[in-house]
Amino acid sequence: MLKEYPGRVRLIFKDLPLASHALARPAHEAARCAGALGRYWPYHDKLFANQPSFERADLVRYAGEVGLSRERFTACLDARRFAAEVEADVEQARAIGVRGTPTFVINGRVVAGALPVEDFRTLIDEALKDKP
Amino acid sequence: MVKGHPRRVPLFPSLMVLALVVMLVRAVAAVEMLGDITVEPTMVKGSPTAPVTIVEFSDYQ
Predict the structure, then answer these.
(1) Alpha-carbon distance B45 to A25, whole Å?
(2) Which residues in chain B are contacts of A95 at CB distance < 8 A?
(3) d(Cα B61, Cα B51) in Å, to the nearest integer?
(4) List of chain B residues whose C-beta atoms are within 8 Å of the C-beta of residue A92
(5) pLDDT value at B27 more than 60
(6) Do B54 and A9 touch (CB under 8 A)?
(7) Which site among A83, A98, B3, B4 is 20 to 30 Å from A4 CA-CA?
(8) Does B28 score more than 50 pLDDT?
(9) Inter-chain contact A12–B34, Cβ cutoff 8 Å?
(10) What are phi and psi of A57, to 5 degrees?
(11) Residue A93 contacts residue B57 (beta carbons within 8 Å)
(12) What is the pLDDT of residues A32-47, one digit of tens each?
């Protein structure tokens, strides 16, 4: 979508690990560690490509595969350096009534569930009409 | 006041105030808010001036 609408769409990712997914929270914390070390999006993509293999050894291996120092990454992950930030995202989701994933907020309009690409185009086009 | 000797403003307190202002401005700039939603800069893709912002709440698992 970003490539389709260059300069006109910005994406902000928010962590919402569901309580029913035991391995999700460490994965979200791991992604933030990758971000702190400069490789957030490659790591993010790696996680989605390897769902749901998120045991600790997997998370560390992915870090190496995206070019991160395993030592620095492991130190961050084991210290749970970003636990509070992930929890803050969960709290923000609750505060605005987001319960499930994925949920999108497009210029303030909340859209729940995975949508077909065509529906996304329609929503983005509508948002652009409001803010050309 | 003696001519040729302008009153000196203490430099140290002025620099302290300036440093404090710079720190506050940086802190405000570092935490972007979108309504009630905080924005972590490393978790953003696309132009900051884009007219459409999509916030995605998602679960890796």
Answers:
(1) 22
(2) 36
(3) 30
(4) 36-38
(5) no
(6) yes
(7) A98
(8) no
(9) yes
(10) -60, -35
(11) yes
(12) 999 999 999 999 999 9
Cβ atoms of B36 and A4 closer than 8 Å: no
Asked if A29 contacts A80 with a C-beta cutoff of 8 angstroms, the reply is yes
* pLDDT over threshold 50, residue B29: no
pLDDT digits 0-9 by tens, A35-85: 999 999 999 999 999 999 999 999 999 999 999 999 999 999 999 999 999
- Does A126 score more than 90 pLDDT? yes
What is d(CA A63, CA A75) in angstroms, rounded to the nearest whole number? 12
**Closest Cβ–Cβ partner in B43, B52, B56 for A8:** B52
Strands of chain A, DSSP E: 9-15, 103-106, 109-112
Name the β-bridge partners of B34: B37
- Taking CB atoms and an 8 Å cut-off, how many pairs form between chains A and B? 139
The token duo for A52 is 């749901």
Q: Which amino acid is at A110?
A: V
Whole-angstrom Cα distance, residue B43 to residue A88? 14
What does the alpha-carbon distance between residue A74 and residue B34 come to, in Å, rounded to a whole number? 31
Residue A18 to residue B58, Cβ atoms within 8 A: no
Q: Please provide residue B49's backbone torsions phi and psi, each rounded to the nearest 5 degrees.
A: -100, 10
| Residue located via tokens 């506050």 | B24
